[in-house]
Structure prediction request, 474 residues.
Amino acid sequence: MTSAQVDTENVPEEGYERGLGSRQVQMIAIGGAIGVGLFMGAGANIAKAGPSIILMYALAGVVIFFIMRALGELLLYRPVSGSFAEYAREFLGPFFGFVTGWTYWLMWVVTGMAELTAAAIYIHFWFPEIPQWVSALAFLVVLFGVNLISVKIFGEVEFWFSMIKVTAIIGMIVIGLGVLTLGFSDAGDTATVSNLWSHDGFFPNGIGSSLMTLQGVMFAYLAVELVGVTAGESENPEKTLPKAINTLPWRIIVFYVGALLVILSVVKWTEFSEGESPFVHAFGEIGIPLAAGIVNFVVLTAALSSCNSGMYSTGRMLRDLAANSEAPQAFGKLNARKTPAVGITVSVALMGIGVVLNYVVPEKAFLYVTSVATAAGIWTWMMILVSHIRYRAAVDAGRLRASSFPAPGGALFSWVALLFLIGVTFMIAYDKDARICLYVAAGWAVALGVGWAVLKSRNPQIAERRDPEFEKVG
Prediction:
């Protein structure tokens, strides 16, 4: 065996069904890069940064690629479903695995709360007579069933959710290019590439205002790391995972940079506002019939896709925690269809509580929920990067075998991405609306600290660093 090969004999058998094919993994990766943060959140970011928001999405996209290549190197070194938590546990110690696993679980639970309620609001657009809680409950039950049946059903549902999002964006780009080059539609007379700099410049509100949008931009990329959680259930992780990760730059260029370039050329940035989907506005300016309804359907699928992914992720993360005695052992059981039914059920129950809470609390709650999700996501990305840095140090010292999918630049780009995320955290602290998530993070840290202390008192061995289960080199 060469150092570049995956040592499949040392990859633990986790009991999952390897039911996710290349087609599904590719679409899960694509879907993870396209969410409500793009379809809805981009409107507020455009209003704050003007055309320079394109540069912010591109900059964040480069950092996300560094993160995903770091994760890819770790995944091909040891492809496991516990992914980020497992690597934090191995390279930083059991406490960090415990914190990362529970924090990633929290991210998806609170995201699921918001997305279910958002989906119900989108249904209300067409059927105002249906109570919001009824739609939310219906979606909760259907997606719960999808995740309990089998991973193949989950993968197929996610495939078609992603297909709808991809088709919508490509359609917008093609139509927008037609308006720019042929001049047809209601927007044809004013559509021009010069809209990108003709209205107070590319940075109309200053570079500082543009940089402050990075926290919102990063939220749009949450879930891109989901492909790492699929490692334990991919049919051929050695082929499907590198391909999914290497195509990420093209997805970012097309779906984020490309779409925004076209939209902001067709419609000048001053016409966009917070709380409005830039896609709905652009479709309306072009004069496409039923524009609002079309985009509403696409955003509905984006919300359901996110919730579907959340149910999938929470069950796998709880099972990994249980396997390491960091969660109740019941979470470690698989049902007859090889899905972690208990972990999924508990997570779904908590998401259901969120539906009730979001029904009675003010609209401001959505900002708080998404802020908490962003903070949890940033922690997860940081753990991926730090684990990668420690892994590369071990490889360079000859203590570990090399991965078959080395990240370009080695640990250097991981350091760059880590410093970038630290900078975004400071921006969150500076923003009076977003900093609430840091208060929640502090409370969550206290809760995790207490939980870890209780675990150690009951099982002192849990805090001991385990002997790594890998082949030593040299």
Observations:
- DSSP finds 19 helices and no strands in the chain.
- The two ends are 13 Å apart (CA to CA).
- The CA atoms of residues 322 and 329 lie 5 Å apart.
- The mean pLDDT is 82.
